[in-house]
Every structure is written in structure tokens, then in C-alpha cells.
Amino acid sequence: TRAALERIERAADLNAFITVTPESALAEAEAADAARARGEAGPLTGIPIAHKDIFCTEGVRTSCASRMLENFVPPYDAFVVERLRAAGTVSVGKTNMDEFAMGSSNETSYFGAVKNPWDRQAVPGGSSGGSAAAVAAGLVPAATGTDTGGSIRQPAALTGISGLKPTYGRVSRYGIVAFASSLDQAGPMASSAEDLAILLQDMAGFDRRDSTCVERPVPDYRAQMAATDLRGLRVGLPREFLEAEGVDAEVSGGISAAAQALGDAGAEVREISLPNAGMAVPVYYVIAPAEASSNLSRFDGVRYGYRCEAPADLEDLYKRSRGEGFGEEVKRRIMVGTYALSAGYYDAYYHKAQQVRRLVQQDFARAFESVDVIAGPTAPSTAFPLGAKADDPVQMYLSDIFTIAVNLAGLPALSVPAGFGGGGRPIGLQLIGSHFDEGRLLGAAHGYQ
Ligand code: GLN
Q1: Is any ligand 1 atom within 6 A of the Cβ of residue 288?
Q2: Ranges for the Amidase domain (predicted)?
Q3: Could you confirm whether domain 2-226 is CATH 3.30.360.10?
């Protein structure tokens, strides 16, 4: 823990952390030592980790990288924080992110952009960019993230680490600042599939305080991982992913090489089709902003968060608190979402998007009748330069063309490193599994690694 805290201080230029908590970390580390001395150590006892600043932490500021929550100190821990603490981990602080998890480059943070440790002129991806950079730079061995449309997998890919988005409902959302509740899911970020399995073991499980959390036994992920054989594993490569427009040649080359390696290891690699995959991004950018506009209505300047100076009346208080407290991207989402939900437009946008969401889900269900795992790129390019897409929301949204469909379908998926492109920038291989098949997914990733 002490070494991790020193590394974090030395790497301050990465801007990976919003809040560092050395005092409580050292106290937790001592408690972990004592547990170890009593012979009560588990695999995570004393392991320093960092939480994305979207997870509520009792007594520790939780800002969601927004001016709106700049000084918000929650009175309770998120389920994931509670579980990982009970497993013996030591929390060293809260990582930077895109504001309210809206973004793919970590540039929308009120606390400034995060830099990619492989190239400090490049983005680390987002929205869990601080967690990704912290793990990639070796500051901590593991961190937590959340993934609504790719926010664990895409930054994992761009920083050369491993990241898992579990099945929707596998991990409780209790105590996570809500972005789009039907898509949000928490997951681990670390350097290998095996580490992800160890972390997921303690993060998964039923919790009554999240009504969408599924009551289902948690298997032994490491055992399932070890029992997975690449020989005979049926791996599907979606034609639509390989032929998608705007995919860099170095990425498609890296993914073809990864598919070849899986085949050489005995997997049966075959082409499959997800005919509606191309509709995922437009569907997401109706559903996610609609849910966000509703979730973010709680930030009214009255109950918690930022409040403007000297409001003239209640309406002025609402308007200026929200106008000054939220950043540009968050406001864009609220406006799009409010519009899509308005009377008269609801059927044309929100209802239609829900129907197409079902088609996307059905594509996957059909695919999993003939394959065990789906493989493809995590992101269409390697890490791009800071500022390159910051003024072009549509280009930024396209960073998630391969990750978003998975959230719409509620499936588990992970990203693992698959070599490097030009300029030494990491490429990520995405593996997608069927519902609650995390063990086999981790096994496939482990076998590949
Ligand atoms: N980049 C996507 C967005 O901006 C996904 C973000 C996420 O998964 N939290 O909405």
C-alpha cells in the first residue's frame, strides 16, 4: 500500500485520481496485516485497489467527475465497495472519469483529462479512464469501473489491460451514481483474466437494494476459468464487426491474428452474423440519454450537490444550479433525452429504440445457438490524441460501435490485450459470452493470454 501511494504521487501528471486517501489506506493495510497474522487472509487481503469516482464511498468524496458533486461526501458505501472491503482490499482512492460516465476519452471530467500511460499525448479511453490508466501504469494492481456502453472495455483496450463487464444483474448497482439504469453494470479492471476472476468472485452476488440484481448462486469463477478448454470452443467472428466502416487496419489486423491464435489453440473459429449490430449506436443514443435525463433530475440544487449563489427564486435556483453544475456533454445528453421522452415524440424515438433493442438482443440469442463465445475488436482504433474528437460528439460516440450492443443485450463481455498497433499503442480483443457465462468467458480469455 505504501509503495502504491508513492507511485500514485510520482505519477500525478497522469491525472488518474480525483481523490487519494493515504490515511485510511494505511489503516486498512494494517488491519489486513493483522488479518494475515491471524491466518485469515484471502486472495485479496491487503491488495491496494482504486474505485472509480462513481461508487459511493462512506466519508470519502464521490464527485462523479462533476462540479455538481464536487463536494459530495456520501454517508454509505456502494455494494461493490462494501464487498471488496470485506474481502480485505485496501482502497487507496477514487479515480478520474468522464463526467457522470458520459464519454469515451475521459476528457469531459470537471477535474481535467487523464493521460494514457503508453503515450501522454493520447487519451486513455473512457469513461473509466482513470481506473484504466492507474492499472496500466502499475499504480495499483486492480480497480473498479462501470460500463454503460463500453466504459470498462474501451479504456481497458486503449491502455492494454483487461476489463470485464458482467451480465446485467450479476453485480448490484446499489450506491453507484446512476447514468442509464437499464444498461449500467459494474466490473473489475486488472492486468489478467485471472485477476478479473478473483475480483468478480467478491463483486458478484445478490443484493436486495438493487431491484434488477439477480438472485442466482455465484459460481467459482477461477475453477470455471481453469476448466475451460480452448480445444473445441466455438468462437464466432461477426462479419459486421470485421467489415464495419472506420475500423483501423492495424486493429483488424490485430484481431485477425488473435482469431488465428485461438484457432491454432484448437478453437473452432467461424464467421457469424449480427445483422442489427449497426443499429446499436443510434438506439443507445436514444435510450441512454432518456434514462440519464430522468436519473439526473435529482440534481436540482436543493437536496444535494452544487447550488448557485443568491438565487432570485426557485426557478432561478434550479436553472442556474444545473446550468453551472453540469458540463457540456451532460447537458447535451439531458436535452436529447428530454426531447426523446417528450409527448408526441415518445413513439417515434424511445418506443422505436426499445423495439430495435429487442432485435439486437435476438441477434445475439440466435448467434449463441451455434457458438460459445463471440470475438471481435473492442474499439475501432487504438488510443487517439487528446483533443482529436473532443469537439465532435458523433465521432466520439463511434468509439463504442463494438461495445454498445452488448449493453443493450445485457450480456457479459471483456477486453484483453491483443498486441500493439503502430506507435506502440495497445489493441484490445473483445470476447462476448451468453448471459451468466462469465466463467467460460474468463476461461477463453485466460487460454488466449
Ligand atoms: N461512451 C459511452 C457514452 O458516452 C459509454 C459510456 C459508459 O459506458 N459509461 O455514453
Answers
A1: yes
A2: 1-442
A3: no
